[in-house]
User: What shape does this take?
Amino acid sequence: MSNTLYLVFFIVLILLNIVSLLIALHSNKKIKNVIKSQNLEYNLIVKIQSLLKNKSATNTVTEHAEMIYQDLLQNLIPIMAAIDIMPRQTPEHPLWRALGGIMDEYAKNPFALEKLRRSIKLDSEIARNVDNYMKRANGFLQYLSNNEPDGILTATFTDGLLGQSITFFAQAQQLANQDE
Assistant: This one.
């Protein structure tokens, strides 16, 4: 009888060990799944944080852009008056209407470059406005390239009216300085 009792006790111990082993394996599998899920969530949080940081940078650029636009426009108004150019009649922002008017006039009449050259040469206030415009516009483009991660917005401004106007004013400045 004692042998049977020992045998039953031994079988129960073996079954308990097998059940314990199965529970340990199952728990190990669950822990691996939790660790995997935690890593995926961590990576997702990092992506969300990066996205929010990029949106924050874009929002900052947008908030500062209006102040910069107004500053650029304040330098353009006397220049436009000196060379007798009117802004475009479109629903755009006043800066883009002014730049569009200047570039449209230059496209129709290349003599606009000569008028600007003369104004720069003869009127120190116009020369100062052109210089201020160029510095601020180049500073704005530099600011965009430093704060925008993918460079699309910077390329858009550089290839658009802002970049064209910088080139136009730089040509006029260079021609005015050659004559001295």
Q: What stands out?
A: The helical segments are 2-82, 94-108, 111-122, 124-147, 152-159, 161-178. The chain is about 90% helix and 0% strand. The mean pLDDT is 86.
